[in-house]
Amino acid sequence: MTLDLFADQPIEITTEPLAEGACVLRQFASAHAQNLLNGIRHITTTAPLRHMKTPGGHSMSVAMSCCGTWGWVTDAQGYRYQAQDPCTAEPWPAMPSDFSELASSAARAAGYTDFAPDSCLINCYEPGAKMGLHQDKNEKDLSQPIVSVSLGLPQVFQFGGLSRNERPSNIPLGHGDVVVWGGASRLSYHGVLPLKAGTHPLTGVCRYNLTFRCTR
């Protein structure tokens, strides 16, 4: 599968409700994609992508890095946010203004007016990589939403309820789509199915996901 870009076609941004407090903003980040990808490449020269290990010792299929004041890490000590990259012992790279402005704008479009993220997780999916159903609950301020930006190859996002036993909905996400969830849906279980092989003009054989959070 090879995807083509049609730069001469206007971008139509639409809002697709998922649940109370949650929606997909279709194509919201498309016009900013190249700047976001340039930012990812700059950040990962200082804080390289890596496959972190879960507390149980399993290597994650997704390669990850972070930027902002706080970065999310997982290792034998558990899941947490910390100010230093464990691979370099240096502070995480600063969050580019393009990143934070896009995230705040997407949050406003979804009805969250005061979102100012202090952490951005950078996830790189290659064919077969996935993310199991989980809750984002390591953040201290759960009144703030999560903003998740998709770049590159399409992948199926799973969005469920507040119990792991609730069957999730499968939502196809494409290049430039942004998912925002908060309020009654803030602790909803979510994940992504394995990435299918393909080629995208801007990202090659992979998909990037930027997940913005307020941790404090």
Question: Keywords, please?
Answer:
mainly beta, seven-stranded antiparallel sheet, globular, 2 helices, 216 residues, single chain, Jelly Rolls, 12% helix
Describe this structure in words.
The chain is mostly beta strands and 216 residues long. The chain has one domain: Alpha-ketoglutarate-dependent dioxygenase AlkB-like (Jelly Rolls, Sandwich), CATH 2.60.120. The protein is built from 2 helices and 13 strands; from the N terminus they run ββαβββαββββββββ. The strands form 3 sheets. The protein has a 7-stranded antiparallel beta sheet, with helices on one face. It has a 4-stranded antiparallel beta sheet with strand order 7-12-9-10, with no helix packed on it. β1 and β2 form a beta hairpin. The chain is globular, with a radius of gyration of 16 Å.
**Which whole number gives the mean pLDDT?**
94
Radius of gyration: 16 Å
| Distinct helical segment count | 2
Q: Which CATH architecture would you pick? A: Sandwich
Strand order of the biggest β-sheet = 1-2-11-8-13-6-3
3D shape: globular
Tally the structural domains: 1
Q: Can you tell me the CATH superfamily?
A: Alpha-ketoglutarate-dependent dioxygenase AlkB-like
CATH topology: Jelly Rolls
* Count of extended strands: 13
Q: Biggest β-sheet: count, sense, barrel?
A: 7 strands, antiparallel
Strand content: 25-35%
CATH class: Mainly Beta
Structural class: mainly beta
Task: Please sum up the structure shown.
By secondary structure, the protein is mainly beta. The protein contains two helices and 13 strands. It has helices at residues 33-46, 97-109, and strands at residues 14-19, 22-26, 63-68, 71-75, 78-82, 119-125, 131-134, 146-152, 155-159, 169-173, 178-181, 190-192, 207-213.
